[in-house]
Amino acid sequence: MRIVLGVGGGIAAFKVASLLRLFTEAGHHVTVVPTEAALNFVGQATWEALSGNPVSTSVFDHVEQVNHVRLGQEAELVVVAPATANILARAAHGIADDLLGNTLLVANCPVLFAPAMHTEMWRHPATQANVATLRAHGAHVLDPDVGRLTGKDSGPGRLPEPASIFAAAMALVDQEPPASSGGPGVLAGRRVLVSAGGTQEPLDPVRFLGNRSSGKQGVALAAAARDAGAEVTLVAAHVEVPLPAGVRVLRVGTAEELRSALVEETGNADVVLMAAAVADFRPAERLGTKIKKRADGDDPVIELVRNPDILAELVTLRNREKRSQLILGFAAETGDGAGSVLDYARQKLERKGCDLLVVNHVGESKVFGQDENSVQILSRTASEMQHVEGSKNTVAQAIILRVAAELGV
Q1: All domains of the chain, ordered by start, with CATH?
Q2: Residues contributing to the annotated binding site
Q3: Hey, what long-range contacts does 405-409 have (CB within 8 A, 24 or more apart)?
Q4: pLDDT of the residue at 362
Q5: Which pTM value belongs to this model?
């Protein structure tokens, strides 16, 4: 496959050398097109040595080949990493004052941007508007990772790891259906309802019962659905990551609040993705004052009651109203002496009645709060399981593709 790898002028450019190696070792023909600023971080000789191809930044090199047009016309995939705030702005507005800008204007293939910049730049309304414009034009823009940046600051803006960018790029050309079956914008015109994060059940004014969910997978699902062209509503409980731009967000706290929001919204959705980690139980009584340690040494007794089964209720509502709606649930399971993770997952799929079930094997250091995930996708209509492993963004993209396949688009 012929890949154009655009490189922006940011410190994260050094990580892109590893991404280039992943592409070439997979057998792809890669032409690196850096900006002038990028060469201040990693030099031309490095890109030429690793790619085996000449490197240029100017539209006036190889004029006899009309290089500024040829590269984009021949490309089967364009990846830009790091995609700086400047590159995103220029690409969104069609500015073509160098070789990379011209290539992006000409390219008629999947285009993937992997942003990297300081948090303030990423969150700036201008950058968010540029990202929304690029996505509306059919480009795929990853959300940056959250972590340590160039200086002492941390936050969203870190370049995703090369392996994650590679997986996302390959998903565009290897796993995504061809344009005649959907392609980029595979969920265009669809309305997708996503729940994310962990519910928190108040015990007293300062304490609550909760779980370890960070909301990363649900937020990634909302972003992936948005990138696939859907109109997305995200119902977010407690999340520890930035919420995606370009989606409608409803904030909730408890399981009852989550249920109310989802029941209100589900009638307008073509697809429901239930990724929230809903607490199974809540305190029977919410106290108005903080529970104190008693002088007599007696420990308090906390009575718990069941929370509503939201997923099963949404399925019941769909069936009762005879809506054409796909519902996907998540199962965070642990095995025990009575059964394995998949045993319990299959029972849950049958009990809930949803169309697809994404199964996680969870634990103290598994899935919750992590950047990587490994899941099995079970279906009510297909006997074979689908295994997906990688970053939570990669898993989200695979789930969206599976949803599109189930919808027949």
Answers
A1: 2-175 (3.40.50.1950), 191-407 (3.40.50.10300)
A2: 280, 290, 308-311, 330, 348, 352
A3: 405/177, 406/326, 406/355, 406/356, 406/379, 407/190, 407/270, 407/271, 407/326, 409/177, 409/181, 409/182, 409/186, 409/187
A4: 59
A5: 0.56
